[in-house]
Amino acid sequence: MSETDTPEPGTAGQRGAAPSRRALIGWGGAGLALGAVAAGGAVALAKDDDGADHADTSGAVEFHGAHQAGIATPVQDRLHFAAFDVKTADRAEFVQLMKDWTAAARRMTAGQAVGEGAYGGLAEAPPDDTGEALGLPASRLTLTVGFGPSLFDKFGLKDRRPAALVDLPPFPGDNLDRSRTGGDLCVQACADDPQVAVHAIRNLARIGFGKVAIRWSQLGFGKTSSTTPGAQTPRNLFGFKDGTRNIAGTETGRLEKFVWVGDGDGGAKDAWMHGGSYLVARRIRMQIEVWDRTSLQEQEDVFGRDKGEGAPVGKAKEHDEPFLKAMKPDAHVRLAHPDSNNGITILRRGYSFTDGTDGLGRLDAGLFFLAYQRDPRKGFIPLQRRLSAQDALNDYIQHVGSAVFAIPPGVRDAHDWWGRALLSEEA
Fold first, then answer.
1. What residues have CB less than 8 Å from 8, skipping those under 6 apart?
2. pTM for the complete prediction?
3. Residue 246 pLDDT more than 80?
4. How far is residue 404 from each of residues 67, 182, 254, measured CA to CA in Å?
5. Which CA distances in Å does 341 have to 34, 319, 338, 385, 425?
């Protein structure tokens, strides 16, 4: 959860097929945030009979660009996130995997099958595509790749590890599950159809068989922040609006300042990251049953906003400028607000999750927190140190999984591929 939320843009490159019934029905929604900011792009809009604007959820998001899609892109409704361990020790084999993944991603984000498709090929060989997305539109699928700190211990990359890609320190209250922490690589698949997102991760894992293996993964629903101006603010699983002051994808100045790695960041060895970003992923368990037995007044005091309108304490409307001193000293909004943290701002794209029960009759549910920033040392780390030590919300949440990744710049054209500036010999 967090007090750095703003609206959402649109995405260029949308193709205009009519939304499928699956895309319109979806899973349901909720949201949560944790001290930050988010961004978007431009999204195609359709008019309903009531005259309201709604995003076209069937189109394709442009794959090529200076930055990877899935960061400043308008936030989709569904997530499948996977962290991978690299199993091959052969650099050339790993480079070829990145090229193969890029080629597959280029096709899937355009709504096309991988390779020769799911049928019609040699009967004696496995098909190139697993087939569960046949007949479904692109659903605004974006695929975003990142490199974890541990990858730089392989393939002679130790001297290319960016200075900003630091291991996250332990924070008070952490109870991290090692099986849900870390990873050499990550792939974030976002779409407006859960089957499209799952299909994407499944096919990349299949292509990588023998070279990489999934270390852990997370499904998410109900985006917990919006990056589209004018969009309704989502609610988290605690029932509160989340993302009121999130960065919009149209705010190019704030993106350059807080999200994208610039020419002056790091030394010459970090030049391959220019145009990229850094991702912190945290699995945050919410104590749903405890929260549901907490009084409304206590809930509102914890957040520093009212539950209905989402207005800050003492204000009437959600987007009214908060008066932080009117809130409890340990209110989440007060502690997470940029004015309380020397202007710290991060771009947030989190999702709610429910993963059954914990064996004791309690929901295993919460927020899968995703935050993009120019430098974790100046973004998430100091912000989380403050929140983990003082935030009243800590009585109701616990961080149980964690990872940090360097997100390289975008794939520029049909000849480019993920990680080329880091991995190619000529680079």
1. 40, 43, 74, 75, 226, 227, 228, 229, 230, 231, 246, 248, 249
2. 0.86
3. no
4. 18, 7, 22
5. 13, 20, 5, 11, 42
